[in-house]
Every structure is written in structure tokens, then in C-alpha cells.
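Protein in question kept underneath.
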Amino acid sequence: MIRSLLSKNIKTNSNKLFTNKYLRNSFIKKNIINVSAIPDDFSFIKQSIDPIINAPIETIEHIENSKEKRFFNIDLKQSPKLNNNEWLYNDFVYAIDNNEIFEVYFVKDKQFTEFITKEGVKGVVQLTENPLLIERMLQHNVNIRYVNEVAETTGSILRMINSVVFQVIGILIIIRIGTILLSKDKGGGINNPFSFSDSPGKEYDEELDVNNTTFKDVAGIENAKEDLLQIIDFLNYPENYIKLGAKIPRGVLLSGPPGVGKTLLAKAVAGEAGVPFISCSASEFIELFVGVGASRVRKLFKQAQEKAPCILFIDEIDAIGRKRSASIGGSSDERDQTINQLLTEMDGFSNNEGVIIIAATNRPELLDDALTRPGRFDRSVKVELPNNNGRKNILELYLKNKPVSQDINIPKLAKMTTGFSGAQLENLCNEAAIYAARNKMEDIPQKVFELTLDKLNLGAETKTNLITESKKKILAYHEAGHTITGLVVSDFDNFRKVSIVSRGNAGGVTFFEPNEERIDMGLYTREYLQNRLVVLMGGRCAEELIFGKDKITTGASSDIMMATELASDMVSYFGFNENIGPINTKNNYVDINSYDVGKEVKILLDEAYKTAMLELKRNKKLLHLIANELIEKETLEIEDIIKLTKGKLKCDIK
């Protein structure tokens, strides 16, 4: 291949480079190029080289000194055309001179010019509109065309087809994803992908089968059951109320902590009355498009009317029943329209006689006032955590179908589970059954329930941690300090267990059972809170008393944090401080900078620390006794503490 260059290098088929006096040195003197070795296909190379090889020296010198001298790059290993049918400029001009080019296309706004040879070969070459070149084409009868674009080659057409196919596939995938999201596979399907408001029977989880749940399946919430008995009586004997002009409450709002049995209670009402029970979640009304939720509310009440009399249960109603926003065009337009439709269906021009709405929420303070007014949710039933008797009944209900040992003590379990909801008690029974099955037991003994309860309250035991004797000694005295201070103060919770077995992030734990009466009342005395500060400081004081101030550890960090928060509440929230008085400084009602709250908190903590240290010094021998027993056994129950104390404490063990 011969290529015009602006260099002074010649690359021959022997791969040797020659510079400067190349014409004489290469072609004549050294005779590097063997013209006879050039193939016939490259005859134009011979034609270009022969005149130089056979020329006299004077001619060569004239060519060398001429401004029109040429430099050649000869490489017989390459083709005269580049990739993708691209020709070199020299090859294209040579083909014109030899009458090989049939037609040339000058394409608008394109870098390359396309052409066709007389043999039908298509190619491209990089050209500019050179008048001399065009004149040369005309001399050799080359057809010249100026076009906007030329027909695509087969490869370009295939690329275009592939691009279109991929775009179509992408559009189809997007449509399919939109179909799934918008229809939610409920009623819409492929045939009706944009049916946002299908009937609630498909859109919601509807339960229209025979409902076997009754009040016998609900335990521990007797007060709430009594409030709902009137609704059951109305559904069973409506004529007794209608003849006296009485109207059944349109809606009942069940509020209470999670897990207390609000949904179960609603099912029981429908089961006792023998009417259909339709349930749905309030979150299913909310969608991206404004108006969809309102349409679903209409469809839901329409279906409820067809099943009347019936119970319509809406769970977590605060998802759509929150206080409406005052802004226009805000992000809550969909929720506002949904609650407006709900208000209209419950007490508007619509006649929904025989449909009783029962709704559940654990945040009733968030609900809109128009929703909770008489005529809509006429009654608000508060479902509380079960008391001791309620927990006993719940445990009996859940253990009825489980094989338990004869040593099972349900009253003791009820006392140990103060503050548990019905769902937590069910989980306790289930976890105990799993533990017994995993250990291949025939029945579930009392000990398994207690181990499961410790796991739920305190966390699982960390058996992989290796505790050294020195660490075990520190943990033992720390927990013994909590134990003794908790026993000596006059008004505090009941001691239950102390352990130095690692559970989660805690190296040890001292567990006190909350007082049932105190939890039911929800009232805590100043004396109780001060005693709680003393017990929290007991662990750190025991470490300082036994090991010295320089040997205390970071084990009391969580105790100090809880004590600081409690003392802060006593000063700035509960008003248990003489210097500041009964003023709430925690919610920015007053300028907190006007009062030295931190100073008063420190006074409370210092007093608690001194009291704890004083009590431990008085009972130092008992401190050593309990700590040594913990080092040996790792866990001590209330019975073990009674044996160790032998009446040495100032107050009785509660």
C-alpha cells in the first residue's frame, strides 16, 4: 500500500527504516526494494516505483530537491482499504484516474463521501468539495450527486431495527409494571389494569364467611366487652330499641396499646351477633392519585349495605382519619378527600342503616374532631392492658390446648408478667412450646415458662463470652449493690431475680417486678422515684466501696443515664423540687435559662449516691455474702435471697 505522508520515513517490506538521502541510498545504492517481489495485485505500486528505480541519478537528485517530492510508506501486509469499506484518499484518486469509479454521493452534513465503483463495490472516503477533484471526476465520466442522505446499508438497517425493538420492549415492560402497581393484582388484572376502585371484595381482605369468634375467645378486657354488649343486643333484637326511638351508635372507636386485642374484640362482636364481618386496613385507601381513596370508601360502604346488618371493621384508622390540613393543593389532598367521603358515609345524606363501623387505633389523639363527634364514632372504648386476673384468664385460654406439666403455676406466671398485653402472653406461651419441642420434652414445665420469660424481658443468654474471674467478681458486687439497695428502701418494686449471666450488651441484671397497683393507677410518688435513684446508684457505689474510686468501671453508664433522665423529669416535669417549684420547664413553657435545672438535678443525684453508699456500708457483710453466692451460682432467685439474709435487712422482703 502506498500512502502520501508528510514524514521522511520509508518503511519497506524488510521492516527497515531509512531517512534523508532515501532515494539514492534505498532505491539505487542499497537496492532494498525488490520490485519483482511485489504481487500483481499491487501493479500500481510498480508503476509508481519503476520510474524512480530506473531513472538516472540526475533525475533522482532533481526529484529530491523539488518541492513536489513524495515520500512513500510501503507495507505489503495491509489491504488497500480500511475497515468498514473506508478508502484512503490516494486509492480513491487512483481509482478515478483508472476509470473505476461509477458514482459519487456528496452527503449533506456528513464527514465521509460515499461512492460506488463500476464493479458495484460500495465505499466511503473522507473528502472535501475540492473543485480540482470534481473537475477530475468529470474528466473520467464519474456521476456526481448531492443528496441529503443515502440509503442505509444492511448493517445500519439492522441496527435501526434492533434499536426500535428494544424501545418497544422497554415500553411494554413499563406498561406491565404500571399494570401490576396500579391494579395490585386485585380485580384489575391484565384485562382491566387501570381499575383503581374495584369492589372492596377484591380490593380489601374481606371476611364474609361464618365467624366463629365469640367473647369466650377474648379474655382480660372485661370492661371493653361490657361496653360492646349493647351493640350485640341491638343487632340481635333491634325492634326493642326502634320502638322506643333509640338509635344504635353508628360507630365505635377502640383505642389502646398494640396487642391488647382490639381486632379480636371486633370479631367477637360480629360473632356474638351472628352477622357478617368485613375488615380492611385504612392504609389500603391511600393511593397516589387523588380521589381513588374516596371511590374505594363508596364501594366499601355499598357492599356493606348489601350485607347489612353487618360489622365493618377499619384497622389503624389514623392512617386516613388524621386531622385535615388547612393548605390547598398540599400533599394530603388524597387523605383529605378520603376522610371527607368517610364522614359523609357515616353521617351524611347516605342511608347506611344496619352498618356498624368499628375502628381501631393506638393514637386516638391524632384523629380529626369531625370523625370522633357524636353521630359518627358515638362511643370510644378504651382497651387497657390486662390486670393480674386478666392475665391469668388469658394464660388459661392460650394454655388450654397445650400439654403443660402439673407443676405449672398460672397465678405466679400472671404475677410475673405485669404489663404484658394479650399478644405478648400468647407469644410467651408459643415460645415456651417451641423451647420444649426443641428439647424433646413431653410437656411444658413451669421452669421453661420462666426461662422464656427471662429471654423476652432480659434478652437471650450470651454463652460464647468467656468471663474471667476478675470480671465475674466486679459484676457480682455491682449487681449485689443493686439488690441490697432495692431491698432496704421502704417503697420500691418487688425483687425477683439477680444474675451475672451476660445477656446482650448487659453483663448482669437485677430484676424487680413492678407493683400491680402502681401500674394500674399510673401514679408514682416522690418517695418511689427517689428510691429508684438510690437503687440505680447502688451498683456504682458497690464498686467504689469494694474496689476503690480508681477501680470503678464503666458498667454503671446505663444506670447513670437513666438516673439523670429520671432526676431531670422530677425537677423540670413533675415539679418535685422546692427551689424551682411546680413549673414545667421541659416543654418550653417558660425560659429554662431562668432556672438552674442542672444544679437541682445534681443535688438529687448526689443525695441518691450518698444514701446508696450509706446503706451498703451498713450491710457490707451481706454485700460480700450475696456477691460470693453470685460468683458461685451466677443466678439467685427470691428464695435464695431470703435464705441468705435471715432477717438481717431493715425491712421485710416484699
Notes: Residues 200-382 form a domain with the Rossmann fold fold (CATH 3.40.50.300). The mean pLDDT is 76. The chain has six domains: 10-65, 83-151, 152-192, 200-382, 388-458, 469-645. DSSP finds 24 helices and 15 strands in the chain.
